[in-house]
Amino acid sequence: MMQDSPIYIPTDSNHGAVDSHLSQEISTTASEHLDESNNESTARDSEGEEKKMRKKALPMDCAPAPNEKLEQAQKMAEKFIKEKEVYKANRELIRCVALTRIIYGDGHWQLAQAFANLAHSYLILQGLPAQAIEHAESAKRTMLIGIRTPAATPEDKREILGTLVTIYFTLGVAHLAQNNGKESYLSLQKAERLMEELQELDGRVSMGLKISEKDLVIAFGRTCLQQNMLDFATSYFEKAVNAVISTEGDTAPELINLYQKIAQSEQLKKNHERAIAYLLQQAYRLLKDSLKSIIDTYGDFSEKAAETYHIMGSICLAEGKMREAYQLFNKCLQIQIAVYGPRNRKLKDTQELLTALERSPAVHEGNRLLK
């Protein structure tokens, strides 16, 4: 059972007063219900499909109340985000801010949440860091005003913490985009500590949270790389690689960019061999990913397929993976025989590689076990 305790808000010298005030005042001791206003919204309904969705399931003889309009706007925003309709999604998020202010007033955490969602949208969907910072700061100010309304339920506390994670993550990544590394790092540290507190509530991070641990780790890596904190950058990117592999597998496209970042960090540290190793891993994953489409397009026995297997074998050979290299070169040889015939020069080169690899202990033992 969760104890009644104040929410911890991370602080720094720049925002200490705001965050300390929040930390002292926001708690879960209150049991009173959140007030709702039924004032009419002045937001205009859009036409076409959006208008139909807003009217769906509503009585024909009455206009929807503001809270119903808010629910509709939230659903529309989610719909447009999924469909990558950026400007329509942004319009609905602005509508959510207006309706939330009408329903809850200027000092409620749900208004801060609406501002935070809008800020996150400006950053992630539109790549506009200045606007993202402006709305994230509005969310912080609103949360400060809202300290007079304590969290009524444990779920409210989760929502407040999740909103604060979104605020500080958005500020961190937006400052990073503006080359303000110090401010970025401080904001991301706050987001990290808030996420840890959120996880402690019930042993897991809320599924509805906009920010994943992977997102946070990648942002830390980028910030450290920008500030030339190269060892930290490499460590964060490696954590991100592990997170991606554990959830999406070792051929996830996102790994390509992460390996590039690791290689960049290693190159800046003058660790050229490690940089090359990461770039080779990236190339191998690209080739492995593209192999199916190559076979679908050109067939199992084609020059393109043979070239792909040959390059993959060369990468494994460079990394000292003798057994894997042997298998890939052997596959390449079979395709080359079918494509070029038995007397082509390319076959001779591949056969010489296979003969050399057969002398290695790993390949020799593997072949012996297969007999």
Task: Give the gist of this structure.
With 371 residues, the chain is mainly alpha-helical. The chain is built from 16 helices and no strands.
Q: Average pLDDT, to the nearest integer? A: 79
Tertiary shape: elongated
Largest sheet: none
Count of discrete structural domains: 3
Helix residue percentage: over 70%
What's the total helix number? 16
Stretches where pLDDT falls below 50 for ≥5 residues?
A: 1-47, 57-61
Instruction: Please give the radius of gyration in angstroms.
Output: 28 Å
How far from one another are the termini? 61 Å
**% residues in beta strands:** under 5%
Which structural category fits the helices and strands? mainly alpha
Biased composition (Polar residues): 21-31
Biased composition (Basic and acidic residues): 32-52
Organism: Chrysemys picta bellii (Western painted turtle)
Protein name: Tetratricopeptide repeat domain 23 like
Task: Note the topology.
Blueprint: H1 16-25, H2 49-55, H3 66-82, H4 86-104, H5 109-124, H6 129-145, H7 154-177, H8 181-202, H9 213-226, H10 230-248, H11 254-268, H12 272-298, H13 303-318, H14 322-340, H15 345-358, H16 361-370
Helix pairs in contact: 1-6, 3-4, 4-5, 5-6, 5-7, 6-7, 7-8, 7-9, 8-9, 9-10, 10-11, 11-12, 12-13, 13-14, 14-15
